[in-house]
Each structure stands twice: as C-alpha cells, then as structure tokens.
Specification:
Elements (H helix, E strand, L loop, with lengths): L9 E4 L2 H14 L9 E5 L4 H4 L5 E3 L3 H13 L13 E2 L9
Parallel strand pairs: 1-2, 2-3
Antiparallel strand pairs: 3-4
C-alpha cells in the first residue's frame, strides 16, 4: 500500500476477506485514512460492510431479482436478449468527494 499523499485516491475490493484486509489493516498501516486519503468501494453489500469503521460503501447484488430473471429467461421461449439487473450503490462513510 502506498504511503500517505503518494497513493491512489480510491480502491475497489471484491471478496469479503480482501475488503476486511484493506479497510482494517493495509490502509491504516500505510498511514492513510479512509476516506480522507483513499476511498474504498466494495462489492456484494454483505453484513460486515456496515459494521466496519468507517462503514464501507458497496455495490449491492440483488440475488433474488437476479435468480428470478434467470429462471424467467430459461422458461421463456426464444431469445430473451441481454438481461440487466440494477445493482444499487449503498453509500456509507468510506468514500469522499473526488478531488
């Protein structure tokens, strides 16, 4: 992780273990502060994201809606084309305004 003032302005974390490692240990160990020096966005909005401090901003995966649309597509005759499922952003304290 870069030192404060010399690193990226944002980080995207995927897996829960990666998210916890980055937010809880790697960023603070570098002397950087979330969100003052680096913003962190995670994916999947699992329960832990709300309990970390600062709370992590995440992209929610609407599992039920995705499953429903997949079944509908499988049961529909013909080509259903591209299926897009909205994935809402759950904004918490881990992001700052872009500089």
């Amino acid at each position: 992780m870069p030192q404060r003032g010399h690193g990226p302005g944002a980080a995207k974390c995927g897996a829960p273990s990666e998210r916890t490692r980055v937010a809880r240990w790697r960023v603070p160990a570098s002397g950087m502060r979330v969100p003052d020096d680096v913003s962190i966005v995670s994916f999947d909005n699992d329960e832990l994201a709300a309990y970390l401090r600062p709370g992590l901003t995440t992209i929610a995966l609407p599992h039920e809606d995705m499953g429903r649309r997949a079944v509908d597509a499988l049961l529909s005759p013909g080509d259903t084309g591209e299926l897009l499922v909205p994935m809402p952003v759950v904004t918490r304290e881990s992001i700052a305004t872009p500089r």
